[in-house]
Each structure stands twice: as C-alpha cells, then as structure tokens.
Amino acid sequence: MDNAATVQGIYEAFGRGDIPAILERLSDDVAWDAWPEETSGQRAGIPWLLARRGHDQVGEFFQTLGALEFHRFEPHTIIADGDRVVALIATDVAVRETGRRFSDDELHLWVFDDGGRVSEFRHYVDTGKHVEAAVAAAAPTG
Fold this sequence. Notes:
Elements: H1 3-16, H2 19-24, E1 26-32, H3 40-43, E2 52-53, H4 54-64, E3 68-81, E4 84-95, E5 101-112, E6 118-124, H5 127-135
Parallel strand pairs: 1-6
Antiparallel strand pairs: 1-2, 3-4, 4-5, 5-6
C-alpha cells in the first residue's frame, strides 16, 4: 500500500470509528502535533490540538474528539510526495460544551518512516477558531 492509500485508509477508518485500525498504521513512537514551538491552541490547552507521542497518547487524542460534534469532515484532496502526504480537509464542527460551531479548511501532514508507518502527524488549522469556540463558555457575557 502506498502512503497516499494508507492516509485514505486512515480517514476511512476514522469515518467508521475504528481507532485501532488507525493506530496500527502509526509507528510506536509517532509524534502527533509535535511542533518546534507550541501553537496558540496548545498554549490555550485545547485538548485535540495538544502534542502527543506514541500510541497511548494518540489514542487519548481520539478520545478528546468526543468534545466535538462533527457536522462535516471531508478529506477532499490528498497529495503525496515521497515520505510525505498532505490532505486537505473541509470541516464543520461544534464544541459540545460551548455550543460554538465553526468551519475550517485544514491541512494534515503525514510523514512516513521507512517501514511505511506514520512517524509524524500535524494539523494545520486556524487555531484561533478552535480556541474561540472552546473557551466561549468561559468568556463573560454582556
């Protein structure tokens, strides 16, 4: 299976809620949203944007997605070049706790090791939208 097909399979597994199938395609020490410097979403403590490492922590990432209600999650373009795959994702989600809903165009970067497993994953999102939606309940109202 080539890397683009692996990423497509990961999104199909996500659509089925088959997290074990996703974890099988990741290296044991996969770096998940591990940026050279913390993002604004990470500084704000947004659970689904935090840096993680390894299967257990990535499994926790998928658990944090329970805080979101997905109205749309559509991977519509997948571009592969060697050990890197970029996916363009149209999203429309609501944060359950706050009721705040937003749409975003995300990029996902998947990096593969020599064994064909994902060694690194990063979300490229409008972190401001995520932070605003997640902390809306904490903000004072008029």
